[in-house]
Amino acid sequence: MAKMWAGLNAGVTDQIADDFNSSIGFDSRMYKQDITGSIAHAEMLSACGIISQPEKAQLVEGLLSILEDLESGALPIDPGSEDIHMFVEQELTKRIGDTGKKLHTARSRNDQVALDLRLYLRDEAVELKALLKELIAALHDQAAAHKSSIMPGYTHLQRAQPISFGHHLLAYCMMLLRDAGRIDDALRRMDVSPIGCCALAGTTYETDRVMEAKALGFSAIALNSLDGVSDRDYCLELMSVLSILMMHLSRLSEELILWCSWEFKFITLSDSYTTGSSIMPQKKNPDMAELIRGKTGRVYGDLMGLLTTLKGLPLAYNKDMQEDKECVFDAMDTVKACLKVAAPMIRTMTVHEDNMLAAAQKGFINATDLADYLVKKGLPFRSAYKIAGQIVAKCMADGQVLETLPLESYQAFSPLFEADLYSCIDLRACVEKRVSQGGTSLRSVEMQLSWVEEQLENF
Question: Final residue of a domain: which of 311, 343, 358?
Answer without folding.
Answer: 358
